[in-house]
Predict the 3D structure of the following.
Amino acid sequence: MYPGFKFVDVKIYIDTPDQAFGEYTIHQTSGISGRLVHQRFFGHCTVTSGKIVLLREALNVPAAANGMFPNGIADVVNKK
């Protein structure tokens, strides 16, 4: 969806042997819509005995829609 993207503005808030939490951003042109998208993510991972037991990630949904759909968020809003 974002050819050649790189994470920027990476911030790590938790970095311990059993968990990690951070935020990261991309500023990239979508390979689908052709729009420049500014997307902020976060990720939280918890590990027990060397195995991932929890992985949560989130992103800015309206920004993702602008990258995925021709008319951006308007394509996912229920119009009557």
Summary: The beta strands are 8-16, 19-29, 36-48, 51-59. The first strand starts at residue 8 and ends at 16.
